[in-house]
Every structure is written in structure tokens, then in C-alpha cells.
Amino acid sequence: MELLANIPLIGGLLSTVVPFVVVLAIVVAVHEYGHYIVARWCGIRSEVFSIGFGPVIWSRRDRRGTLWQVAALPLGGYVKFLGDADGSSRADQVSLEGLSREERARSFHGASVWRRMLTVLAGPFANFVLTAAVFTGVALWQGVPTERPTIGGFTALPGIEQPLRVGDVVLAVNGREVAGFEDIYAAAAAMPEPGPMDFRVEREGRSLDVTAPYAFPPLVDGVEPLSPASEAGLRPGDLVLSAGGRELRSFSDLRDVVLASEGKAIPLSIWRDGAETTLEITPAERDTQDGEGGFERRVMIGVAGAPLYEPATRTPAPWTALGFGVTRVYEVIAQSLNGMRSILNGTIGAENLQGPIGIAQVSGETASQGGLSFIVLIGVISTAIGLLNLFPIPVLDGGHFVAFLIEAVRGRPPSPAVMQLAMSIGLGLILLLMVFATYNDIMRMVS
After folding, report:
1. Is the same domain home to 24 and 122?
2. To 10 degrees, what angle do helices 371-389 and 113-142 make?
3. Which domain does 170 fall in, by range?
4. By its UniProt entry, which PANTHER family does this protein fall under (predicted)?
5. Which positions ≥6 away from 345 have C-beta within 8 Å?
6. Catalytic residues
7. Does 230 lie in the same domain as 178?
8. In terms of Cα–Cα distance, which of 82, 65, 93 is closest to 119?
9. pLDDT tens for residues 142-189?
10. Has residue 66 been placed in a domain?
11. Cβ neighbours of residue 260 under 8 Å, at least 6 residues apart?
């Protein structure tokens, strides 16, 4: 995406809009395909499968009679089933009355209630499947640590010799036996002061002792989009040499400087691409997870630290990788629900809610950090969209499901007047939420 950003005048806009459109197109296409394919399995005919709204810029009709199209406004999509008035699955009574008995059986509104319930749930479920597939692929691509704690790589530090080698098997650190890489990190965290660490390693069949650099230097691993770090220009891989005039020995030193800044600007000296440069960063007070399921408000800059030493990896079994993918779906859902609950009960501010502008900015910044980060973002947003659609709000899939559930229990659907009122209320709630989230985006940009 750097090529887009370098186009004069419009590069910055394109580097934000294009990733956003790509994310939205993939997530929406998967969501709508879930509706489409399950409806097809249930014998329901789909007349239109659309990515986007408005004027059609491409279309093709398949042998089943479904019109596949891409429209000019890429802010969603829909599947229009036989008998629908539009993409929201409202019944077209005139059209339904003109259908034969066989045709009506293939319409959405003529299908049995359980088939309609399966069809509306299929969209969110497809989003969850996409997220699981993304993180399964990430696990297969990145691998998992080998059985024995083996050095797979490390970051070269300026002016510091690294005695460890790739392939060294770590036996003990600071006198403690090591069973896995988490033990190496725990030994570093247990040191009263950051400094050199004593390693006993197995190399080429023999054991030797070496003294190596501290495992948690002030090394930047990840930069949170729309954060002070992102605005200041920090990048993954940067080594922060000093902050506010204080020489840093560990990532926790950087955290201490930020917490003590009281939100005032901090000059940073960083090592990047073999040269030293300076930046200025202004920490901001933000709501963040406290690690115990809640939130706390503290001054932060939005960076994550990277351990100096990386483990050697192996490709996991497919079922192990799939387990990781499914677990990540659960974690994203749990984190999303926790955040929503905290906003509703006032634990964190409603300004944390992002709208389309904020999501577009996050997409652009994430794309600039690399393809893998962008793919992970697609997985996270896919589950967020799937979860949102499960809420029991009319016009959303969850609202349709509740209406069909009422029909299954009562033996007849709610009256058209009730459904029309519910749809109007649901649409109003969604529009109000979008307006408020967009207001948050604009105020965030202004501030």
C-alpha cells in the first residue's frame, strides 16, 4: 500500500479507501454467500446476489437464473430471494400472488420456517467460518514453537554482540531450568533490574554457558492504528534508545516514561534501518483492557513490545491449527461483547465506538504494516460483522430469526403492521448508531 500513499494529492486517501473497500467486499461477500448457499441447499431460489448498492458496474447471470452483480457503492451487499420486495427480504405480496404453487415453494416466504431460520443464520455463521479459516491459516503459516526451546531468530541490537545462535537449544536461564520459551520470558521478568542474562545452551551436541542481552529491550512489535504511536510515525521493528532524555534498557522503561508523562509530549530517539533518528510522541489517555476481563483508563501511546528472542517453529497438525482458529473466533466474540457491555454500563466511554471512517483508517494503517496484519484484520472484522448481525434488531439477521422463531411458536407470523413497525424502529436504531459512530470518527480526527 506504500505505492498508493506516494501518489501526489490523492495517495493518502487511496491508501485508506482501497484497503477499506477490500476488507468490506471480502467480509460482505462471505456473509451473503452464506445466505445464498444455505438457501440453495434449502431449495430457495436466489434472484440477485449483489456486492454493493446503487448503479451496477458488472453483472452476470448463472445457469440457475441468479444475477451476480457488483454495484458502485461498496458499503454492503444483499441476496434477493424469489418473492422478496428488495434486499431486506420484505415480502412482495403482488409478486407472491402471481407465483404458481411450485414457484411459491421455492420462494423465501413460501419456504418452511426452519429453512428460513437456517438461511438467515447462515450469513453470520459464514463470517465466523472465515475468521476461523484466517487464523487457522495464520497458525499454519507462522507455525508453533518446537518441542524443545530452540532459538529461531533474534533482533540485532546496535553496538551489542549477540553470542546466541539460531539453533541453540536453551537448557537454563539465570540458573533456572527451561522447558519452553515462556520460561525464558519468565526468567527475564523475574530479574530485579533489566540486564545481561546467563544462558546455558546446547549447541552442536555440547553444553556451554553464554551471557546474552536482556530478552525484553525497548523494541516495538506492533503499532495500534489511530494511536499516538501511529501518528508519531513509530513502526514495528523500531528500537527506542531513549525517551524524554532517559536511556532505556527495557520495554518496561518506556512504559514507565509514558505513564509519568501526564500526557505531555515526549522526545524519542530510535534506531531504525541502521541509523538513529528522533521523533516526538504525545501520549493520550485511553480505555484499555486490564487483563482481567475489565478496563482501565491510563496514559498510553499504543505500542506492543517484542521479545528479543524468537522460538524456532514447526508446522502444526491441521486439527491443531483449526483449534487455534476456532479459539480465536471465541476470543474475538468475547472481547467484542465485553467492550459493548462496558460501553453500555458506562465503564468505558462511548467515544470508543468506531464508525465507517474509523474502520477505513484502521484498514489503511493496518495494510501499511504488511499483508499478514491486513489478513488478520479481515478475520477480526468478519467476526465483528457476524456478531452484530446476530443482535435481535429488526432489519438484521438476528431480528429476522426472532420473527421466525415467534412464527414457529405461534404457528403464524407476526402481522404485517407489527413487522413494518419493528423494521422501521430497527432501521432507525441502526441509522442512529451509524450517525453517532461517524460523529465519534470525525471528532477523533479533529482532536
Report:
1. yes
2. 160
3. 145-212
4. MEMBRANE METALLOPROTEASE ARASP2, CHLOROPLASTIC-RELATED, REGULATOR OF SIGMA-E PROTEASE RSEP
5. none
6. 32
7. no
8. 82
9. 998 898 999 999 988 888 889 999 999 999 999 999 998 999 999 999
10. no
11. none
| pLDDT tens per residue across span 182-230 | 999 999 999 999 999 999 999 998 999 999 999 999 999 988 888 899 9
CA 334 to CA 355: how far, in whole Å?
20
φ, ψ for residue 70, nearest 5 deg: -120, 125
- Is position 427 within any domain? yes
> What pLDDT does 290 receive?
65
Query: Who's near 67: CB < 8 A, 6+ residues apart?
Result: 47, 48, 49, 59, 60, 61
196 and 240 together in one domain:
no
- Same structural domain for residues 130 and 193? no
Residues 166 and 289 in one domain: no
Share of the chain above pLDDT 70, in %: 95
pLDDT > 70? residue 282: yes
Answer yes or no: do 256 and 292 share one domain.
Answer: yes
Partners of residue 269 on adjacent β-strands: 242, 278
Q: Say yes or no: 36 and 117 in one domain.
A: yes
Any domain includes 340: no
Degrees to nearest 5, angle at CA 323 with 30 and 221:
85
Cβ-Cβ contacts under 8 Å for 109 (sequence gap 6 or more)? 83, 84, 91, 96, 116
Number of domains in the chain: 3
Boundary residue ending a domain (187, 212, 237): 212
> How far is residue 346's CA from residue 205's CA, in Å, rounded to a whole number?
59
Hey, what's the cell of 38? 444455505
In a domain, 435, yes or no: yes
- 409 and 390 housed in the same domain: yes
Last residue of a domain, one of 306, 339, 371: 306
Residues whose CB falls within 8 Å of the CB of residue 273, separated by 6 or more in sequence, listed in order: none
